[in-house]
Amino acid sequence: MAQCRLTDFFASRRPGPRAASSRAKPTWSTPSPAKPSPRTSATTTGGSRKRARPPAEPVRDEPSPAARRRLRLPADAVSSPGSPTALGSPEHSSPRKKTKKAVQLPRVAPQEDKVPSKVTFSELNSCLKRARELGARVQELRANAQRNEARDPNVPEAEGHPAEPCGEKAPAYQRFHALAQPGLPGLVLPYKYQVLAEMFRSMDTIVGMLYNRSETVTFAKVKRGVQDMIRKRFEERNVGQIKTVYPASYRFRQERNIPTFKDGIKRSDYQLTIEPLFDQEAGNMAPQLTASRLLQRRQVFSQNLVECVREHHRAFLASLNPPMVVPEDQLTRWHPRFNVDEVPDIKPAELPQPPTTEKVATAQEVLTRAHSLMSPRMKKALSDLALRTAEPSSPGYPSPALPATPPATPPAPLKGVSQDLLERIRAKEAQKQLAQMTRRPEQEQRLERLERLPELARVLRSIFVSERKPALTLDVACAKMVDSYHMAMSPGEMEKHIQLLSELLPDWLSLHRIRTDTYVKLDKAADLAGVTAQLVRLAHAEAL
């Protein structure tokens, strides 16, 4: 707020030329942006008794009609925005003149759009021709698909498995699922079989809940519950696969007059009902699907899945050169070259279908029904005619002979190598793979420890040399070896390695029990290279 001066007070009290000039009507003029008027600031800050009137809005001078006519330019004088005449013209200095020019510019635009009309017409013709070609292609593909379906009507649709584009492989987590399993190798199931086992577990849980409540179990109810549990699609094809793996699990029927409380399904429609099967117990009580029975059925289903994989494994072993035969009770893992995740999918079994009512819809159905109404003499005449027309073509074209199987020839890198040597190498490799497939988990753990012993022996000797002691307690030795070994290992596991080392080489390493502690004594004078070589030979002999 501006501070008032003393002279301003006297000027406002006494009438004089200053006061008269302040009460006179101000004349509006265009203010200069560089120098603000000090006169107006003096009048606004004056201490007058009368209330100052608000300043009136300045009346803007409207341009005269002659000026408006001068602003309008002819059509040939309109230049492009980048031309120097357009930039230097006075129209660019006033925003109002810019708007007037922008309103008049669209009048010239239609004259420029008339040039590419022929090009647009040709492009439309080409697009229309391309659309007709694509429509004809779609009709052809649709006709081929219908022809293939009519030729192979028994091929089931892959419900629950979206069709993959030609040449696209399955994801890596499915193709290498068996290799990514933790723990020791064993009879691992492929990914799709494990998904089917999870589907059976969820289906058995839903069926058990509905059956224990004496409620009619339909496929629609089971499908909704299973999909909520496993977050995967569950179709009738999967139910057929479950029936193939475990035929004695459920009884399937087509029934109607089942209350559904749905608008999409009528009460008179046929629905697939599911009833669990189990051994009847003595007593008048109705059997129930308890938790123990669910667990037992799940184990039976898993064993059946393993048996399916074993059949494919037996076929793979029979196709080897030389063929291999492994007893089923001794098989603990699959063959190293047997790709578990490429096992073919389980074929779904046939489920009961709703009865179909005969409805004549095509001419072929009419002819088929008319054929059943023919007399026996007419049927015999037609069959004789068919035989006479088929006889001349049969002897003229003999059945082609199957090509003889060529003898097995060795590959190019093995040319010149004797066949006996190859047979001995293959027999030795087959024997090694047979021992590997029949190895128990305990033997597998012992082999892993034997492979680590040469390096652990070097670590243990270096610890004794650095400590400069003839003996160390077992706890101290295990702790120092855990810190020095490159793999993460617990002290208990390291203690098992030291005990195994003392069993294999009692002259080099010995354990002594004194009161409550166990001491480790090492012969530092022995040759370390000979010790490690002996451990390598023992591990190799154990692996064979």
Feature tags:
cell cycle, nucleus, Cdt1_C, 3-stranded antiparallel β-sheet, 544 residues, DNA replication factor Cdt1, two-stranded antiparallel ribbon
Task: Describe the fold and architecture.
InterPro entries: Cdt1, Cdt1_C, Cdt1_C_WH_dom_sf, CDT1_Gemini-bd-like, WH_DNA-bd_sf. The chain is extended, with a radius of gyration of 49 Å. Helix 10 (191-212) crosses helix 11 (219-230). With 544 residues, the chain is mostly helical. It is built from 21 helices and five strands. A three-stranded antiparallel sheet has the order 3-5-4. Strands 1-2 form a two-stranded antiparallel sheet. The longest helix is centred in the N-terminal third of the chain and has 35 residues, at 117-151.
* Structure annotation, total helices: 21
CA-CA gap between termini: 105 Å
Radius of gyration, CA atoms, in whole angstroms? 49 Å
Beta content: under 5%
Structural class: mainly alpha
The ordered H/E elements are HHHHHHHHHHHHEEHHHHHHEHHEEH
The largest sheet has its strands arranged as 3-5-4
* General shape: extended
Number of strands: 5
The main pleated sheet reads as: 3 strands, antiparallel
Residue share in helices?
40-55%
Instruction: Flag low-confidence runs.
Output: 32-48, 75-117, 152-167, 393-406
Mean pLDDT across the residues is 74
The gist of it:
The protein is mainly alpha-helical and 544 residues long. The chain contains 21 helices and 5 strands. The termini are far apart.
Task: Please write out the topology.
Elements lengths: L5 H8 L3 H7 L14 H8 L19 H7 L12 H5 L6 H10 L4 H4 L4 H35 L20 H4 L15 H22 L6 H12 L5 H10 L4 E6 L15 E6 L14 H28 L44 H10 L3 H15 L2 H4 L22 H19 L3 H27 L3 E3 H11 L6 H14 L4 E6 L2 E6 L5 H16 L1
Antiparallel strand pairs: 1-2, 3-5, 4-5
Helix pairs in contact: 10-11, 10-13, 18-19, 18-21, 19-20
